[in-house]
Amino acid sequence: MDPNRRTFLTSAIAAAPLFIPRSAWGANDRLAYGLIGAGGRGRYLNNNFQKLGAECVAIAEVYEPHLEAARKDSPAAKPYLDYYDLLAQSGLDAVVVATPDHQHAPMLFAALDAKKDVYLEKPMSHSLEQSKVMIEAVRKSSQIVQVGMQRRSAPAVIEARKLVDSGILGRITLAKPMWNWNVSKALDNRPLPGKLDWKRFLGSAPERDLEPMRFRSWRYFWDYSGGNMTDQGTHLMDVVQWFTGAGLAKSAVCFGQEAKNTGSEVPDVFCAVFEYPNLMATWTLNYCNSYDNDWSIQFQGDAGTMILNNAGYRIWKEPVPKNPDPVQTVAAPIPIETHIQNFLDCVKSRQQPNATVEVGASAVSAPHLANVAFHAGRQAHMAADGFSAA
Q1: 263 belongs to a structural domain
Q2: 380 CB contacts (<8 Å, ≥6 apart)?
Q3: In this structure, are residues 142 and 117 in contact, taking their beta carbons and an 8 Å threshold?
Q4: β-pairing, 145-148 with 117-121?
Q5: Is 11 domain-assigned?
Q6: Is residue 17 domain-resident?
Q7: Mean pLDDT throughout 21-38?
Q8: Which domain holds residue 368?
Q9: What is the rounded distance in angstroms from the CA atom of residue 227 to the CA atom of residue 224?
Q10: Interacting residues of 185 by C-beta distance below 8 A, sequence separation 6+
């Protein structure tokens, strides 16, 4: 047990139901899982897991209003304040972890110790060095771990990759992932309604007095996340590396500003440039403008160009004329259901899922490196092992 685990502060509300552990899966067996972290993303995942036939039997959450909201969707689930108590409940097959980034590693380790399979939200880790330890822990276990990078299971994205593999774009020399949302604003530091166990939220993060905006907008503080760089960059830089076979970034530079998100430590406008052995990539994010709204990735090859986004993909042959029509277009959203279903299938089959911890570590490696460059104000270079920067 974690020696830093804090004393359980409140009593659980309901008696634990009894469940029979799965020794062999039948076609109609329902996976019983616990939800750790019932904020907006956690409740979204919870609803989609239940739509696919899984059963939420336990919820651990440090903020009472989030717990109450999640229990409306899963009224039979036993509530917990402490995730260790959830992991001790009998009959759990798996856990869904949807907490701030800094809690991912300790919660993964605890779940593995409890012999639970894990659906772990992205970004997988809080640092390059942490990624290595997380991979080692998973590979020493027999558990199935899926990182929540749903593009890995999206039919349109998989189809687009096959086209790139066919050589339709020729040699790709530049990839340009981009994310535009006009959502940035000053952080809300008003008092929180409802009870929050602040010390449990902090976990292993540095101790400090409660500031409500640190809980409401935890992604905007380095103690709890890698900022917008790893939050969105994990998705997009993974696709860049996956489609091009580029491997890990050799180096990165990054510049950014806190433009409208007053109170934040994290840029809401930035540009990072990555050097790969045979590729360059620029990753830009602007939360102060909605032109070309949402995410997109442009792959530029000497035989063609592909733009991939939330609607699908389009391809243009070289040379591109003025005001060209694409030669191929596929419109398709990026569903979460296929990624969750892949995890559920792998829990039963014990096959490796689409987004393993190795994939998760690779996906977040370039964004982690860019954060190192941003904080140091210089070009950062990836170490040979891919788990540290120089």
Answers
A1: yes
A2: 251, 252, 253, 369, 370, 372, 373, 389, 390
A3: no
A4: parallel
A5: no
A6: no
A7: 77
A8: 155-334+362-381
A9: 8
A10: 260, 261
Do 196 and 306 fall into the same domain? yes
Cβ within 8 Å of residue 11, ≥6 positions away = none
Please, is 261 exposed, middle or buried when counting C-beta atoms within 10 Å of its C-beta (0-12, 13-18, 19+)?
buried
Q: How much of the chain exceeds pLDDT 90, in percent?
A: 87
Q: Is it the case that residue 253 has pLDDT exceeding 60? A: yes
Given a contact cutoff of 8 angstroms between Cβ atoms, the answer to whether 125 and 364 are in contact is: yes
Identify the band that residue 320 occupies on the pLDDT scale cut at 50, 70 and 90. Answer: confident
Q: What is the 3-state secondary structure (H, E, C) of 117-176?
A: EEEEECCCCCCHHHHHHHHHHHHCCCCCEEEECHHHHCHHHHHHHHHHHCCCCCCEEEEE
Are 88 and 138 part of one and the same domain? yes
Report if residue 370 sits inside a domain.
Answer: yes
Tokens (6 digits) for 204 = 């292993």
93-113 tens-digit pLDDT: 999 999 999 999 999 999 999
- For 84-132, give the secondary structure using H, E and C: HHHHCCCCCCEEEECCCHHHHHHHHHHHHHCCCEEEEECCCCCCHHHHH
What's this model's pTM, rounded to 2 decimal places? 0.92
Strands 172-180 and 279-286: parallel
**Rounded Cα distance, 184 and 160, in Å:** 31
Residue partners of 239: CB distance under 8 A and separation at least 6: 151, 157, 177, 297, 308
Residue 117's DSSP bridge partners are 94
Query: Cα separation of 81 and 37, whole Å?
Result: 10
My answer on whether 90 and 148 are in the same domain is yes
160 with 206, same domain: the answer is yes
- Residues 182-224: tens digit of each pLDDT: 999 999 999 999 999 999 999 999 999 999 999 999 999 999 9
Gap between the Cα atoms of 251 and 264, Å rounded? 26
102 and 168 in a common domain: no
The residues with which 179 forms a beta bridge, in sequence order, are: 285, 295
